[in-house]
Amino acid sequence: MSDKPLRLLLGFDYGTKQIGVAVGQVITGQARELCVLKAQNGVPDWSRVEALIKEWQPDAVVVGLPLNMDGTPSEMSARAEKFARRLNGRFNLPAYTHDERLTTFEAKGQRLREGQSGGYRERPVDAIAAALLLQGWLEENCPG
């Protein structure tokens, strides 16, 4: 953890086509979805990321780590870790990763309970998945 107290965090559900973004507060231990950024082969529009960083001024970022179900790294894990390093390098913010297994599955379940069936391309769940992984990180690292 950094020397600076953590108050506000941005969470990223990294993907090759879309990156879900969420915001979380340490004091409340709560995270909520913000938006979904388009990506080209895993590369976001960095100006959009920069705009979010400037708007929210997070103390750190958390990137979901897509591990295999047995806990071993997946091909996407390396790409997510690289994305976390890029966020750290570009914006000089502490960047953490968090196991995100089942967050997309859980996010789709949440949408199903709200009445959505399919249509995840038009109404993606990436931001919900980002909120779930950030919520998990907060619960693990900042217990109230």
Short description:
This protein is of the alpha/beta class and 144 residues long. The protein is built from four helices and six strands.
Describe this structure in words.
It is found in: Cytoplasm. This is Putative pre-16S rRNA nuclease. One of its GO terms (biological process) is rRNA 5'-end processing. The chain is an alpha/beta fold and 144 residues long. It has a single domain, classed as YqgF/RNase H-like domain (Nucleotidyltransferase, domain 5). The chain is 38% helix and 26% strand. The chain contains 4 helices and 6 strands, in the order E-E-E-E-H-E-H-E-H-H. The chain has helices at residues 46-56, 75-91, 103-113, 126-141, and strands spanning 8-13, 18-25, 30-40, 43-44, 60-65, 95-99. The protein has a 6-stranded mixed β-sheet, sandwiched between helices. Helix 3 crosses helix 4. The mean pLDDT is 87.
Number of strands: 6
How many domains? The number is 1
Distance between the termini: 17 Å
**Gyration radius over CA:** 14 Å
Tally the helices: what do you get?
A: 4
What are the salient characteristics of this protein?
6-stranded mixed beta sheet; single chain; Nucleotidyltransferase, domain 5; alpha/beta
Structural topology:
Layout: E1 8-13, E2 18-25, E3 30-40, E4 43-44, H1 46-56, E5 60-65, H2 75-91, E6 95-99, H3 103-113, H4 126-141
Parallel strand pairs: 1-5, 5-6
Antiparallel strand pairs: 1-2, 2-3, 3-4
Helix pairs in contact: 3-4
